[in-house]
Amino acid sequence: MGHPEIYPLVLTSKTQEIFNCRIDEDVTDEQPYKLIRKEDIFADFENRAAVSDFYPVKKIIQEYPGDELLLVYDKDFKYGLNFYLIGTEEGKENYLNPPEVPEEQEEYKEHIPEDIYIYKPPISKPWVSLGSEKEIEEESVKESTKEITYMISRKRSEFGAPVKFSDQNASSVKDAYIECTAYPDKKFTLKQLERDVGMQVVPKIKDTSTQTRWTYPKNATTQYYPREFSEEEKDALGQSKTLTEFLNNVSISVEIALQQNEIMNTFINDWKSLAEEEGTFGDKTDTHLKEYQSFTYMHNLTENMITCVSWHPIIYGLIAVSVAVRLSFEERVHFSGKLLLQPSLILFWSFSDPIQPQLMLESPDDIFCFQFCPSDPNIIAGGCINGQIVMWDITAHADRIENIKAGGSRSKNVTLKPMFLLEPETNTEAMYIRHCAVSSIENGHRKVITDIHWLPDTFEINRLGSVFENRSGISCQLVTCSADCTICFWDIRPQKALTPQPPPEKKKEESIEVPFDVPSTFLHLNLSWKPLSKIRLSKGETALDHCPTKLSLSEDSLLYKAQDKMLAQSKAMKAGEMNPYQNLEGGLGNYLKPIDDFCTKFFVGTEEGEVIYTDWKMEKDPETGRFMTKKPLSLYTVHDGGVHTIQRSPFYKDIILTVGGWNVAIWKEGIMTGPLLQSSCAPKRYTSGHWSLTRPGVFYIGREDGYIDIWDLLEKTHEPVQSQNICITMITYIKPWTFSAKQQFIAIADYYGTLHILEIPWTLSRPSTNEVSRISYYFEREVKHLEYVEQRKKIREEEKKEMEMEKKKVETYQKSKEQLEAKLKMDYESYLELEKDILINLGLIKVEETMSNKEMI
Amino acid sequence: MAEVEETLKRIQSHKGVIGTMVVNAEGIPIRTTLDNSTTVQYAGLLHQLTMKAKSTVRDIDPQNDLTFLRIRSKKHEIMVAPDKEYLLIAIQNPCE
């Protein structure tokens, strides 16, 4: 019943009358439709034309194939109007025959029950097991054990009795509570054997960040690169004519400008450069050293002298002094018994306590020289009179000496305070500290060690003298020179024994008991310490060798500078891991990189007053194939006595001061012709010397009469500028030290065992402007002077040669004159004879006549 | 070509001269005795300064022109000789 066939219509009552389809008369509920003939509709069209109700569907009616159309009364207004027309035959048929459709459905439904199903009651069959009883059994719950029944009874009277509760601690009563603690049961731990993880390959990225300098605070930046010419363009331009012309025109003015600058500096402010720097402390005219403090050790039986002085590199006001008995060799032998009772000491004096030394380091015999280790000032190495090296480790007492407050000692009145007013800082009794290790007696030096130095921590030396880099960062090697004509290099790290030591010796060493309070830093060295290499200063075939008294290596001046560096180092060591000196073995096995072109040459001063410049690197002797020490590069005898000071200037690495006998000499490393400056003989012997630490042209010389000479190269170079009396006896050691820009001290040790501390005045400690450059200029002039002298020497020699040559020529000339005369004479005589012979032969003269003729002639 | 090199060598051999360079009118270096980064920096900055100085001089008097520029600083003296197409720059350390 498709809707497109339905054409709703409104039929007026007039139309209904015409067509006999009046509502409720012709068209009823039972028969809501009416068949209308097409002809009737057409007649209606003719009669009523547009007024006809069928007019809207006129076309449909015209096209209608059949004769009769079906008109249905739409009582319910299903299609909107009261009648509708079905426009097709099919629709008509469908409308007329709709009841067939539900009938069909009903029929379809009735089909199923039409398959006759006869009910048969089920016949019982034997049960076939399909395996389900197993499951049933598994699922069923059965009692595994017999049920236990309890019967609990209680007296009836107790039921309902009043109950009294009280508190009780659960843990105090046994079995009052039962707990079920959790415990990890391994049965229930699951081990994850497989894991589902996603992976992705990404390119390697690196995150870095930098701090950029924000020169102009703006938030926009530009990145750019400059325009440049390529090489060909540059060449092309270079060849162009315009460039040549331009340069020709312009170079003249540029050269004038350049030359103007060369001639004179027009912008210099003459007034400004005249004046010295202002802001001086103290009086400018005051040039004397002022007495600050003095220390004497009172407790010894025999008289002492001070052999070596060293300031503590870090702690203010602490100075160490080595004391030896003041006896000659014979007297030593004579009093040897008495001397054994007396300990040989290094004393630590502090400014705060002039009576009692702070620490006393014991040694087996008198110490003649010692040094603090530059990497760790708690390690001290000293050279003994018997040729042994003694090592101390005062790390355990370091805090004791550090806590010494110098306190108020900036004033010079400390010595005037009575003793009971001085606050006792710590234990007032001085501590005796035993030495840590001594070197082997057989393998070391045989005679007194005259000088000892720590090698700086920047390099290391091996057995042959080659230089390697030092990875351990600490000074671990020493160099000593001794009166037995050898210079030895020592290493404080445990040596790998090349030859296995025979057991009996080992046992002996083990049996030596070390006192418990001695630190074991150098235990491996004790009594078995051998030098790394030995250099013998031989004079060639003669038996006498050079006897060295002092050494100067190239990097000694490290000790003076960088007190801050020391502090930083020591702090770092405390804060970080353990002290590297406790673990000396760690540094050995590493392969070290050799340092090329390192200057292995050094200066040695000898007992005879010579200054030798030699090399410590061993070279292979072509004949024997062994490694021999090289011959010294240069040797000069300038001093009349033993050289007791060789020192590099703290300002110039290659200027060396040597003091010995009665004069002073200054040398420059590399100049082989002679000293730059050699002073004339002084009235008194010079016994010690030292450069000033702050002024490049100033040095201090101590004399044997207790005077100190201060030389200033800028003022006078032939004599000292100033002489000051310090004490009554010979000055054995001078050591200045800078604590701050305003305070500089000089420690002067004398022969009677007193250590004087004096303060250096402002004028002597403060360099003037350009002093460094002026002094270096002075040295350059001296070098040029030496060269000139050399040149003159050469010229003179040549002149001399020439003069000799001329002389020779003159002599030969004279000689030849005489010869000529003699020759002439002989010729004449032979001629006479010849004449005679001829005359005889001619018979002109008879023989007798000839005889008489001869007589007549 | 040899003349150019010779002139530049002559200037360079004066006492105290640190470096010499020839720069074109746009500030691109042509010849130099210093390293590349320094050259480029000097060339760029001095070129601009020279242009400014030149324009200053000509603004004051249009018939005047810049012939030489010398900049003296604490450490050295920079000399610039300008031209229509090129710039010659010399840096000297006036000895004290």
UniProtKB/TrEMBL annotation, chain A:
GO cellular-component term (any): inner dynein arm
- InterPro entries associated with the record: Dynein_IC (IPR050687), WD40/YVTN_repeat-like_dom_sf (IPR015943), WD40_repeat_dom_sf (IPR036322), WD40_rpt (IPR001680)
What GO biological process term is on the record, naming one?
cilium movement involved in cell motility
List, alphabetically, the SMART domains matched. WD40
Q: Which domain of life is it from?
A: Eukaryota
> Does the record bear Methyltransferase in its keywords?
no
Where does it reside? Cytoplasm
| SUPFAM superfamilies with a match to the protein in the record | WD40 repeat-like
Q: What is its main location?
A: cytoplasm
| Coiled-coil intervals | 786-837
GO terms for MF? dynein heavy chain binding; dynein light chain binding
Does the keyword Cytoplasm belong to this entry? Answer: yes
Name the keywords, alphabetized: Coiled coil, Cytoplasm, Repeat, WD repeat
Quaternary arrangement and interactors, per the entry? Interacts with ACTR2; this interaction reduces binding of the Arp2/3 complex to the VCA domain of nucleation promoting factors. Part of the multisubunit axonemal dynein complex formed at least of two heavy chains and a number of intermediate and light chains. Found in a associated with the catalytic heavy chain DNAH2, the intermediate chain DNAI4, and the light chain DYNLT1.
Q: What does this protein do?
A: Acts as a negative regulator of cell migration, invasion, and metastasis downstream of p53/TP53, through inhibition of Arp2/3 complex-mediated actin polymerization. Via its association with the multisubunit axonemal dynein complex, is potentially involved in the regulation of cilia function. May play a role in osteogenesis of dental tissue-derived mesenchymal stem cells.
What is this protein called in UniProt?
Dynein axonemal intermediate chain 3
Which organism's genome codes for this protein? Answer: Tursiops truncatus
Automatic annotation (TrEMBL), chain B:
The question of whether Transport is a record keyword is answered with yes
Q: Name one Pfam family in it.
A: Robl_LC7
Any GO molecular function = dynein intermediate chain binding
- Ranges for the Roadblock/LAMTOR2 domain? 4-92
Q: Name one GO biological process term.
A: microtubule-based movement
Its function, per the record, reads: Acts as one of several non-catalytic accessory components of the cytoplasmic dynein 1 complex that are thought to be involved in linking dynein to cargos and to adapter proteins that regulate dynein function. Cytoplasmic dynein 1 acts as a motor for the intracellular retrograde motility of vesicles and organelles along microtubules.
Protein name, UniProt field:
Dynein light chain roadblock
Q: The organism's lineage?
A: Eukaryota, Metazoa, Chordata, Craniata, Vertebrata
